Amino acid sequence: MTSPALVPSSPTEQTVIPSAVVRFAGDSGDGMQVTGDQFTVAAALAKNDLATFPDFPAEIRAPAGTTYGVSGFQIHFASDNVYTPGDAPDVLVAMNPAALKTNLRDLKRGGLLIVNSGAFNAANLKKAGYETNPLEDGSLENYSLLSIDITKNTQNAVKDTGLSNKEANRCKNFWTLGLMFWIYGRPLEPTLKWIEQKYGKRPELVQANTAALKAGHAYGETAEIFQRKRYEVPPAPVEPGVYRNINGNTATALGLVAASRIANRELVLGAYPITPASDVLHELSKYKHFGITTIQAEDEIAAVCAAIGASYAGNLGVTSTSGPGMALKTEAIGLAVAVELPLVVIDIQRGGPSTGLPTKTEQADLLQAVYGRNSEAPVCVVAAATPGDCFYMAIEAVRLAVKYMTPVILLTDGYLANGAEPWKVPNPSDLPKIELRFRTDPNGFHPFLRDETTLARPWAIPGTPGLEHRIGGLEKDYDSGHISYAPENHERMCRVRAAKVAGIARDIPEQTIEVGSERGKLLVLGWGSTYGAIREAVQRCRARGLDVSHAHVRYINPFPRNLGELLRRFDRVLVPELNLGQLVKLIRSEYLVPAESLPKVQGKPFKVEELEDAIRRLLES
Amino acid sequence: MTSPALVPSSPTEQTVIPSAVVRFAGDSGDGMQVTGDQFTVAAALAKNDLATFPDFPAEIRAPAGTTYGVSGFQIHFASDNVYTPGDAPDVLVAMNPAALKTNLRDLKRGGLLIVNSGAFNAANLKKAGYETNPLEDGSLENYSLLSIDITKNTQNAVKDTGLSNKEANRCKNFWTLGLMFWIYGRPLEPTLKWIEQKYGKRPELVQANTAALKAGHAYGETAEIFQRKRYEVPPAPVEPGVYRNINGNTATALGLVAASRIANRELVLGAYPITPASDVLHELSKYKHFGITTIQAEDEIAAVCAAIGASYAGNLGVTSTSGPGMALKTEAIGLAVAVELPLVVIDIQRGGPSTGLPTKTEQADLLQAVYGRNSEAPVCVVAAATPGDCFYMAIEAVRLAVKYMTPVILLTDGYLANGAEPWKVPNPSDLPKIELRFRTDPNGFHPFLRDETTLARPWAIPGTPGLEHRIGGLEKDYDSGHISYAPENHERMCRVRAAKVAGIARDIPEQTIEVGSERGKLLVLGWGSTYGAIREAVQRCRARGLDVSHAHVRYINPFPRNLGELLRRFDRVLVPELNLGQLVKLIRSEYLVPAESLPKVQGKPFKVEELEDAIRRLLES
Amino acid sequence: MSNLIEPAKLTKKDFETDQDVRWCPGCGDYSILANVQRVMPELGIPRERIVWVSGIGCSSRFPYYMNTYGFHTIHGRAPAFAMGIKVANPELSVWIATGDGDGLSIGGNQLMHCLRRNLDVKILLFNNRIYGLTKGQYSPTSELGKVTKSTPFGSADQPIDPASFALGANATFVARSIDTEAAHLSDVLRRAARHSGAAFTEIYQNCNVFNDGAFDSFRERDVKAERQLRVEHGKPLVFGAQRDKGLRLDPKTLTLEVVRVGEGGVPESEVLVHDETNQTLAYMLARMPYPEYPVALGVLYAVERPTYDGVLRTQKAEALARSGAPDLARLLRGNAAWEI
Amino acid sequence: MSNLIEPAKLTKKDFETDQDVRWCPGCGDYSILANVQRVMPELGIPRERIVWVSGIGCSSRFPYYMNTYGFHTIHGRAPAFAMGIKVANPELSVWIATGDGDGLSIGGNQLMHCLRRNLDVKILLFNNRIYGLTKGQYSPTSELGKVTKSTPFGSADQPIDPASFALGANATFVARSIDTEAAHLSDVLRRAARHSGAAFTEIYQNCNVFNDGAFDSFRERDVKAERQLRVEHGKPLVFGAQRDKGLRLDPKTLTLEVVRVGEGGVPESEVLVHDETNQTLAYMLARMPYPEYPVALGVLYAVERPTYDGVLRTQKAEALARSGAPDLARLLRGNAAWEI
Ligand SMILES: Cc1ncc(C[n+]2csc(CCOP(=O)(O)OP(=O)(O)O)c2C)c(N)n1
Ligand SMILES: Cc1ncc(C[n+]2csc(CCOP(=O)(O)OP(=O)(O)O)c2C)c(N)n1
Ligand code: SF4
Ligand code: SF4
Ligand SMILES: [Mg+2]
Ligand SMILES: [Mg+2]
After folding, report:
1. D284 CB within 8 Å of a chain C CB
2. Residue D159 has what DSSP assignment?
3. Taking a C-beta distance cutoff of 8 angstroms, is the pair A85, A52 a contact?
4. Which residues does chain A have within 8 Å of residue B371's beta carbon, measured at their own beta carbons?
5. Interchain proximity C88–B314, CB inside 8 Å
6. Tens of pLDDT along B118-140?
7. Distance from CA of D12 to the nearest CA of C (A)
8. How many CA atoms lie within 13 A of A211 on its CB side?
9. What is the location of CATH 3.40.50.970 in chain D?
10. CATH superfamily of B243-508
11. Distance between CA atoms of D180 and D204, rounded to whole angstroms?
12. ipTM (interface pTM)
């Protein structure tokens, strides 16, 4: 076997294209996530902008070959800014019939379809529910089909390494990656280095995967069929700096670590595992040397209570969860409101109601976050817009919580949690400041004495001599902090708690327009993970001359102080959300503008196209 | 001691007045609730319309003489319709300094103030926080003060019965009641009979309390001072029928029993004690022979889950609680939404946030009821307007829950729970019908097959041969009921669940105007326990010629189908609520009408006067 | 529906559903499922009278695969749903499938109260000492120092033993078995089914993905005889391939000791005899530290006590007998009504 | 704040607050409060380092009356708050006041996990066998058949014994005392305070309003010597005014028996000696049926085991030693960054 050149040998044949969307799909055991990650690194090193999204099966480990065991990974990379992992793939790699079955309908008409014909045997076809072999029955004629026996090719490539057949088969993904690298003209070195590091302890695996990668690449080089199928996506005009790929959950966790460092305070996370939030717990539990303590509590109630306890004792108390867990935490969050302690609650939303679609995304916990507590229990609610934004919003949540002595709910979702994008690594010294003020002076102290500006009560932590005091969930006297059932006092306290949270509006940025003009026919108002899709759709529509702008709220309670005024500058307001219309309710009730809802509840993000269509329909109506 | 005549001896001296508000206040041990109850019975028998409200101390049994140990009872009775227990008492009976201290500010200027001077000793004055004796320092000159040593008078009256001093003192309340009976010209017999029944086993107590009652009455008859202080409140034009006095919690419990009988289905209440909801549990636990099972669960979560389990097994599953307990139930209510089982959740709202003011009233769980669940989890929300209305709304909640296979949240509050009114006892055969349909036919069955009209799924209960099936919180396929993660199916299911609840609007009465014209300058829109106060305020304003109407929503999700149209017939809409503005948010967002909020969060109901003022201010602005 | 004829005798197949079983290949849950499906027909209960209730977790998927009534509820609360079901219809045979996370972490309170109430339900706790469904965090039964995704430095909390927890919570039936021990598991299930009251059965279950081999040290063919103590009421507590080891009580220290029995050891008469009605013995057996002692399997404890649902039923019957047929009109009128 | 001088020795008064105590006159909570306020100064812990945490209930009002830091939280969850507090600041001495409803009904799960984790907190459970604050419903420790407002026909569920629950949950310290037994309660509190780990103390407390006299049959002066067994480590388990009764083990049936000791009875050497490190003995003592047996009071069980907060602290120190000072810039960069 001849070793292929490590750089594309015939660069002249590459067609330059501005962007591409590629999806890898295969059985859970086929290593699609690794393939996707390596392909992503290559795109990043080629300075493309990019976004990725993995699609894990709901089952832990479904039987091989089943449709519900299919694992996918999509990447969108471009020479321009990229805002979403892409609507529909230009290229689909399907490692078995089940992967083809579940993914084909997304592939663009005429798109390149690479299948591992070696997996299209009778058993697999049956498991995928095919009655005839699609590779042979003409059903794929709308696509540019490349049917290759990747299994056999891989076995051939690694036959000298002495691996068992089963282990040899595991190298298929690297063979495929090699082929894809050839198509997009990517160098092999970084992946070869990665293989070396990853499998260093088992040289035969290093050898085999290396051989497979190179063989796939060589296949592209030599197989006739590829002569007209190479593409180049030139570098994007990215700001210089150090970048890494980051998903939302990692960004959230790192944001919390950063907040703890900035504030110079230890942080305690109380959490109970739940999809898709568990990774925040997993990630944070690595950082004990950063002064981060993670408590895997017995349930969500204990988790939030532990976080509140930690805040009470002067640490940064945080709890992370998803929908059903949020429901369980509401009583305790109400207590944090009543005793006015800082608390960060991170809700990584997933499909519901109830257990719902645990591995899918949704934005339907918004009203629960804003209103889901007994009585008047206002909290601050913020939402992250992109995976990387989770980092900054986590810091912001901590900043507001400690400054205003209030619970802050940070909303992200399954799509942000697992979706990834290149992220410019910030310099710690450029991060926002968080100043903590602990009360130490016993003179004139009472626990509900308020700061005149923020209306926050003092953070007076156990261990401070002379400040011994009692707090609790019963109503407190405004002037002494003691228990009080007095009627007017209760109203005064309810109002001051509300005013305190409302006052945060003075401390957050004004609402800006992301894309488009400051006034006009239509404003598309989004929040959370729909950011990328809305932005791209609005850009495209504007490119076609439509009068549409995009604004994206990161602060939901309170809203930015200029939001009402901004909304009224537009004839119409459209609010796309991954729910049946929740932000739109808040907007309508707060500003009495006839905002219209564009709901989607399919466990999936918006496609850019869906939004474009909606905008067009609306502007034409 | 001469026995006074049992009927007023000099009826000619009575001043006829249309209504009166009387408040009895004393130490927890002074028997004020009994006094109030007996006074209420007398008013009822005199065919007055009336409303009452007890005011229990927050503490279980506070030390005697303290202000926080004061127990009160207010009654408003009239020769016309009565809608509230009255803003400010015309007559205040204060049995000790603490009662005077905590209640005086409510007494009308010039009102009659009866105090037991025997209790105004140094120790009691100090406990109440008086530096000088108010009976002597001129501070009561704005009132018509009657200072009587009731202690001594009572002791004299009962001295022949051989009671200990302590026991003799316990008769003070009957002496006082006797005096009050004399003032309002009430016969003593019913109370004498009641004493006989109540203390029958201890003849000396019968004798003593009888003597005290009569002595108090005689005191009025003979003491010079009373010659010009007798009143008559003539009978009200009440519909003929059998009446009883009923408070909201009893009415709720009886409504559930009635619903169970009407539907011919056993009912299971799962509950965990919590103020002010516990009495629903207490009341229902008496009716085992009605096929009612009550489970005092280990917590609120278990309580609601048990109720859902009971519904699943074909009984009527109900759970009752208050704010903090509601917060805990939300996850399970979401499951009931997902599996579409009937469930009645009764939230007897109290002051919050968190533990808040547990014994006080509030209407601040509305948004929690409507929105407080993860994801899109629509439920039906209804609210009772008066104590007696709790009975009918409980039946209605059961009717809707079983017909639409949905959770229904019934909102009442601490004010309704403990407030009482004369209630026309309905004839069981006049009550609404509840028809249950259980699926038995296995043909074509699947558990999420919907009724075309109601969109309800079939109630297919364990024990039915051939219908074995599995349900759960994961999303289900519309067409088979099996687990499904399919995107479009999820949206379809979310929408059909929403449509089902929205469709209830077709099955409930249209919104009507309670008082006033069908269109005009101002509509006062209320919900829940504010009914009486709003109604009276609007009536009074209309009597003064103001253009104002009153509508009261009993159905909050969905709203009555004509509500939007009705609201738009008024120039302005004012929404008074015992919260910081919750219904007003729903109204604004749903109908985009600029409804204005009139909030009150003091743990107390609106005074009629406060509402009148607000209406007047608004119409003048 | 009353023209039902005596149902035909059911078979394992009758208890299988048409749903794809979605556990990982090789998961211990499969053998438990097969075992239950085999035992169910023997109970002679018609399928429509059987209800499986579960919480959330891999183990809690169980009801989907049983062709009976099934309710997959929310995390940790199955016993509370079961309470409502059983109280509403005492005719039903109610079974709970739960996991070490579902039943002992979030659901500890519901389980505890179900046991102390002695609700007549059968509880199978699949103990794989890990959270399977959420992909491998430690559970309340995981060993101290367990390294998982959420505890990269090892867990910091002592585990709980499910059987000892159940006994402390006043359970009337406590048993233990293993996923792979088909015959033993069947025996235990039959006993649990026959028990009137809350029957708690812990089943050691291998999660081959996130905690593979957790029980191998006493489950594998070559060691199990030496490491398992199969308890049987009235039989001496002996174990070992040669049945040459036994448990003896040291009455001075009130502890158990493992002794060699027979030749070269103590006579069998000195060995404790299992008495499943003795709570103390059950407790000692449940808590024997491993591997110093063998793992006790079988019915550790079983006594009869009034059931929660039974008492409620009796109360209802008595109330009806006492008060006569319910009279709604009278109830609504109360005893202080007046007429106008 | 570092120029603090050695704090003056504290007295009971220092632990009293200016709040009106709002329990019913005559409530057992008063004597517990007085007792705690008396013992606290002896511990030598500055007031500012003491935190009282509670849930909801009459008993849970406790923190308001202690002039230390105090947190009156929500119903049943005090142990979880305490976990956050203790983990955040291990220097604090954290005490929990809870009731039979707060700690064993709604809060059973939090209590159980706190005990098995061995979090270093002191837990006082005021057991009045009733819900006081909600005015008298039965609790999980109320006797079967208890007639209350919510159970006019008598309760249908078996009670749980707090101490046996705690043992089953793997607690490291389990003790019992009575509100009115000042000296005994003080001793027990001192022991609990000294215990490193979760120290669980059940205190029988009379609710004179809703469950008056619940413990009179073994609390009243004239009967208590015969009905109480005061256990002490290393001392024989004897009781009675004449110390003429004792507990003996019947090793055959593995049960305890009450025997007459001394003259006309068995020699004291046959009586069991209390060993507070023996879990089985503690369990048997906790569960002795009353009135056939006396009520065991004192430290039933006490062993040392690593605490949850202690292990976490060690892990943190080790991680810091291993990884060196935290470097945020490096962390944010991760190990797959690229530069453009
Ligand atoms: C309220 C709530 N919290 C958390 C989860 C996430 N969750 C699902 S299963 C599970 C643990 C399951 O562990 P176990 O009961 O041991 O079941 P196994 O998967 O090991 O069989 C968790 C934490 C959830 N579904 N709901
Ligand atoms: C979530 C919630 N549910 C219910 C209540 C009502 N509640 C307050 S205290 C209590 C029971 C208290 O019993 P226990 O702990 O024994 O305390 P005690 O009053 O007897 O000292 C209940 C049910 C509450 N405050 N919060
Ligand atoms: S994760 Fe473990 S317990 Fe769950 S199905 Fe897979 S092997 Fe079984
Ligand atoms: S109700 Fe009982 S426990 Fe509560 S304060 Fe009164 S006497 Fe004490
Ligand atoms: Mg498990
Ligand atoms: Mg109690």
Report:
1. yes
2. -
3. yes
4. 367-368, 370-372
5. yes
6. 999 999 999 999 999 999 999 99
7. 36
8. 23
9. 12-235+274-308
10. Thiamin diphosphate (ThDP)-binding fold, Pyr/PP domains (3.40.50.970)
11. 9
12. 0.97
